[in-house]
Task: inverse folding
């Protein structure tokens, strides 16, 4: 049984890459290149992963272990300023259940040979779809995640 | 099962205090009395009890008084909701952005055009 709950959260992740902003932005815009890091496999393009990078365009990924829960990511691009900003919303599903709805903003700050990327996500986590197995993962990893987030440690 | 009253903001506020994190770390090892929680901390029992009440009010900790001893234990549901949120969202994106760094390094190494 699932209770109807809504948990809100906002987080910010920063990364500095040793690459010019044109290359970093292209890695978000080009479907083959994005599949390499977003899914972890360029072969996923057209086989579970699709990207239509334009305002109003959509991105989708479906995957999961054979016979297991199918996780679906569906997003839509709302604002694109080349080499500066991408704003998109996305939904996550576990099988047919909607797990979360988020708005994410990616800001690119070109600083010569390096690029600072700031990803801000604001979302709502819907209902309690976690399983007994997931609950057993323990509090230790939670505390480590928490300590890292309280330190603002993104590395 | 997740309690309706769980509120991530309050959970984080409760855990923003170092003394309360010390108590939570101790409780992840198993239940403890208020005096046991107080042992490593340089504060009065009354102050420790106040911290315990903060942890209890946000649903992280449950307490039960038997005789003159109040026993505290972790309430798994609150940790689970917060853990899942952080694990799923933040850690997922951190891993992806690290992979982006790897891809950028590969591109730089092979001289591939953007």
Result:
């Amino acid at each position: 049984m699932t209770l109807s709950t809504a948990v809100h959260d906002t987080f910010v992740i920063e990364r500095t890459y040793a690459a010019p902003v044109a290359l970093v932005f292209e890695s978000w815009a080009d479907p083959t290149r994005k599949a390499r890091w977003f899914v972890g496999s360029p072969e996923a393009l057209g086989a579970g992963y699709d990207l239509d990078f334009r305002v109003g365009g959509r991105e989708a990924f479906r995957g999961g272990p054979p016979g297991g829960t199918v996780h679906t990511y569906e997003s839509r691009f709302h604002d694109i300023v080349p080499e500066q900003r991408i704003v998109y919303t996305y939904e996550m599903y576990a099988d047919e259940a909607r797990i979360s709805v988020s708005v994410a903003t990616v800001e690119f700050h070109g600083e010569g040979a390096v690029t600072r990327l700031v990803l801000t996500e604001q979302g709502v986590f819907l209902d309690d779809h976690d399983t007994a197995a997931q609950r057993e993962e323990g509090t230790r990893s939670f505390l480590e995640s928490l300590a890292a987030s309280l330190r603002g440690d993104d590395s | 099962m997740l309690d309706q009253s769980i509120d991530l903001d309050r959970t984080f506020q409760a855990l923003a205090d170092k003394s309360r994190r010390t108590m939570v770390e101790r409780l992840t090892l198993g239940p403890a009395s208020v005096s046991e929680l107080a042992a490593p901390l340089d504060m009065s029992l009354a102050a420790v009890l106040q911290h315990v009440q903060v942890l209890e009010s946000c649903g992280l900790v449950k307490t039960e008084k038997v005789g003159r001893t109040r026993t505290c234990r972790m309430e798994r549901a609150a940790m689970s909701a917060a853990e899942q949120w952080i694990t799923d969202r933040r850690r997922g994106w951190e891993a992806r952005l690290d992979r982006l760094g790897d891809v950028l390094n590969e591109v730089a190494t092979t001289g591939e055009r953007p």
